[in-house]
Amino acid sequence: MNLNVLRDKAYRNAVVHGWHEENLSNEHFLCLVISELMEAVEADRKGRHADRESFIKHYEDEEPHDSANFMYSFTRFIKGTVEEELADACIRLLDFAGLREYDLDSFDYEGSDTEDFSEMSLTESMYRICVYATDRSYGKDICILLNEIFAFCRSRNIAIFWYIEQKMKYNELRPYKHGNKKY
Questions:
Q1: Overall number of domains in the chain
Q2: Out of 94-108, 125-139, 142-156, which region has the weakest mean confidence (pLDDT)?
Q3: Domain range for residue 111?
Protein backbone atom coordinates (compact mmCIF):
# COMPACT_ATOMS: atom_id res chain seq x y z
CA MET A 1 0.00 0.00 0.00
CA ASN A 2 1.42 3.36 -1.03
CA LEU A 3 0.72 5.56 1.96
CA ASN A 4 1.72 8.73 0.14
CA VAL A 5 -1.13 8.13 -2.34
CA LEU A 6 -3.58 7.73 0.57
CA ARG A 7 -2.03 10.79 2.26
CA ASP A 8 -2.59 12.93 -0.82
CA LYS A 9 -6.14 11.67 -1.29
CA ALA A 10 -7.06 12.34 2.37
CA TYR A 11 -5.51 15.80 2.27
CA ARG A 12 -7.18 16.80 -1.03
CA ASN A 13 -10.56 15.69 0.28
CA ALA A 14 -10.09 17.65 3.51
CA VAL A 15 -9.19 20.77 1.52
CA VAL A 16 -12.22 20.39 -0.78
CA HIS A 17 -14.49 19.99 2.25
CA GLY A 18 -13.15 23.13 3.97
CA TRP A 19 -11.08 21.62 6.75
CA HIS A 20 -7.91 23.62 6.01
CA GLU A 21 -9.23 27.16 5.75
CA GLU A 22 -7.19 28.27 8.75
CA ASN A 23 -3.70 27.42 9.97
CA LEU A 24 -4.00 25.10 12.97
CA SER A 25 -1.30 23.66 15.22
CA ASN A 26 0.10 20.14 15.23
CA GLU A 27 -1.45 19.69 18.67
CA HIS A 28 -4.86 20.50 17.19
CA PHE A 29 -4.55 17.70 14.64
CA LEU A 30 -3.18 15.24 17.18
CA CYS A 31 -6.07 16.01 19.53
CA LEU A 32 -8.51 15.18 16.73
CA VAL A 33 -6.71 11.86 16.21
CA ILE A 34 -7.06 11.15 19.93
CA SER A 35 -10.77 11.99 19.71
CA GLU A 36 -11.18 9.34 17.00
CA LEU A 37 -9.38 6.78 19.15
CA MET A 38 -11.74 7.62 22.02
CA GLU A 39 -14.70 7.20 19.67
CA ALA A 40 -13.34 3.70 18.93
CA VAL A 41 -13.40 3.02 22.68
CA GLU A 42 -17.02 4.23 22.88
CA ALA A 43 -18.00 2.06 19.92
CA ASP A 44 -16.39 -0.93 21.62
CA ARG A 45 -18.22 -0.18 24.87
CA LYS A 46 -21.47 -0.29 22.87
CA GLY A 47 -20.46 -3.51 21.11
CA ARG A 48 -20.42 -1.75 17.74
CA HIS A 49 -18.26 -3.60 15.23
CA ALA A 50 -18.48 -3.39 11.47
CA ASP A 51 -20.27 -6.06 9.49
CA ARG A 52 -17.96 -6.13 6.50
CA GLU A 53 -19.53 -9.21 4.94
CA SER A 54 -23.03 -7.69 5.01
CA PHE A 55 -21.68 -4.44 3.58
CA ILE A 56 -20.02 -6.33 0.72
CA LYS A 57 -23.13 -8.43 0.13
CA HIS A 58 -25.47 -5.44 0.22
CA TYR A 59 -23.37 -2.93 -1.71
CA GLU A 60 -20.90 -4.80 -3.87
CA ASP A 61 -23.13 -7.76 -4.76
CA GLU A 62 -26.34 -5.77 -5.28
CA GLU A 63 -27.25 -3.21 -7.92
CA PRO A 64 -27.11 -0.29 -8.34
CA HIS A 65 -23.55 0.65 -7.39
CA ASP A 66 -24.42 4.30 -6.96
CA SER A 67 -23.60 6.87 -4.28
CA ALA A 68 -26.95 6.56 -2.52
CA ASN A 69 -26.64 2.79 -2.17
CA PHE A 70 -23.05 3.14 -0.95
CA MET A 71 -24.02 5.74 1.68
CA TYR A 72 -26.93 3.58 2.85
CA SER A 73 -24.78 0.45 3.07
CA PHE A 74 -21.94 2.27 4.83
CA THR A 75 -24.30 3.84 7.36
CA ARG A 76 -26.03 0.53 8.03
CA PHE A 77 -23.01 -1.78 8.33
CA ILE A 78 -19.93 0.35 9.15
CA LYS A 79 -20.85 3.79 10.57
CA GLY A 80 -20.21 4.25 14.29
CA THR A 81 -18.09 1.12 14.68
CA VAL A 82 -14.65 0.47 16.12
CA GLU A 83 -13.31 -0.18 12.62
CA GLU A 84 -14.69 3.08 11.23
CA GLU A 85 -13.25 5.12 14.10
CA LEU A 86 -9.82 3.53 13.65
CA ALA A 87 -10.04 4.34 9.94
CA ASP A 88 -10.95 7.92 10.91
CA ALA A 89 -7.88 8.15 13.14
CA CYS A 90 -5.71 6.95 10.25
CA ILE A 91 -7.37 9.36 7.80
CA ARG A 92 -6.77 12.26 10.18
CA LEU A 93 -3.10 11.25 10.39
CA LEU A 94 -2.90 10.90 6.61
CA ASP A 95 -4.48 14.33 6.17
CA PHE A 96 -2.08 15.82 8.75
CA ALA A 97 0.83 14.25 6.87
CA GLY A 98 -0.45 15.78 3.63
CA LEU A 99 -0.75 19.20 5.23
CA ARG A 100 2.78 19.05 6.63
CA GLU A 101 4.16 17.27 3.53
CA TYR A 102 5.49 14.23 5.42
CA ASP A 103 6.85 11.33 3.38
CA LEU A 104 5.05 8.28 4.74
CA ASP A 105 6.62 5.73 2.44
CA SER A 106 10.12 6.25 3.81
CA PHE A 107 9.21 4.57 7.13
CA ASP A 108 9.86 0.84 7.60
CA TYR A 109 6.44 -0.27 8.87
CA GLU A 110 7.27 -3.97 8.74
CA GLY A 111 10.66 -3.72 10.42
CA SER A 112 9.80 -1.18 13.08
CA ASP A 113 9.31 -1.84 16.77
CA THR A 114 5.67 -1.64 17.89
CA GLU A 115 3.69 -2.36 21.00
CA ASP A 116 2.43 -5.90 21.43
CA PHE A 117 -1.29 -5.22 21.49
CA SER A 118 -2.28 -8.90 21.50
CA GLU A 119 -2.45 -9.09 25.31
CA MET A 120 -4.03 -5.65 25.83
CA SER A 121 -7.71 -4.77 25.87
CA LEU A 122 -8.97 -2.28 23.31
CA THR A 123 -9.03 0.48 25.94
CA GLU A 124 -5.47 -0.27 27.06
CA SER A 125 -4.37 -0.32 23.42
CA MET A 126 -5.99 3.04 22.63
CA TYR A 127 -4.44 4.49 25.77
CA ARG A 128 -0.96 3.35 24.64
CA ILE A 129 -1.48 4.91 21.21
CA CYS A 130 -2.65 8.15 22.86
CA VAL A 131 0.52 8.15 24.97
CA TYR A 132 2.52 8.10 21.73
CA ALA A 133 0.41 10.96 20.37
CA THR A 134 1.04 13.13 23.43
CA ASP A 135 4.71 12.26 23.95
CA ARG A 136 6.78 15.10 22.48
CA SER A 137 9.42 12.67 21.25
CA TYR A 138 6.86 10.58 19.30
CA GLY A 139 3.82 12.80 18.82
CA LYS A 140 5.22 14.65 15.83
CA ASP A 141 6.15 11.43 14.08
CA ILE A 142 3.02 10.59 12.14
CA CYS A 143 4.59 7.36 10.88
CA ILE A 144 4.97 6.00 14.40
CA LEU A 145 1.35 6.79 15.25
CA LEU A 146 0.10 5.17 12.04
CA ASN A 147 2.33 2.19 12.68
CA GLU A 148 0.89 1.67 16.16
CA ILE A 149 -2.67 1.76 14.83
CA PHE A 150 -1.69 -0.64 12.04
CA ALA A 151 -0.09 -2.97 14.61
CA PHE A 152 -3.22 -2.89 16.76
CA CYS A 153 -5.37 -3.69 13.71
CA ARG A 154 -3.09 -6.59 12.75
CA SER A 155 -3.43 -7.97 16.27
CA ARG A 156 -7.23 -7.93 15.90
CA ASN A 157 -7.38 -9.02 12.23
CA ILE A 158 -8.92 -5.69 11.21
CA ALA A 159 -8.42 -5.00 7.49
CA ILE A 160 -7.67 -1.35 8.23
CA PHE A 161 -6.75 -0.39 4.66
CA TRP A 162 -10.10 -1.67 3.40
CA TYR A 163 -11.88 0.39 6.08
CA ILE A 164 -9.78 3.45 5.25
CA GLU A 165 -10.74 3.15 1.58
CA GLN A 166 -14.44 2.81 2.40
CA LYS A 167 -14.40 5.74 4.84
CA MET A 168 -12.52 7.91 2.36
CA LYS A 169 -15.19 7.18 -0.24
CA TYR A 170 -17.87 8.01 2.33
CA ASN A 171 -16.11 11.28 3.20
CA GLU A 172 -15.88 12.25 -0.47
CA LEU A 173 -19.66 11.97 -0.75
CA ARG A 174 -20.35 14.13 2.31
CA PRO A 175 -21.29 17.81 2.03
CA TYR A 176 -18.93 20.72 2.65
CA LYS A 177 -18.01 20.89 6.37
CA HIS A 178 -20.55 18.13 6.96
CA GLY A 179 -22.66 18.78 10.02
CA ASN A 180 -21.57 22.43 10.04
CA LYS A 181 -18.65 21.46 12.23
CA LYS A 182 -16.24 24.23 13.12
CA TYR A 183 -13.14 22.01 12.71
A1: 1
A2: 125-139
A3: 3-177
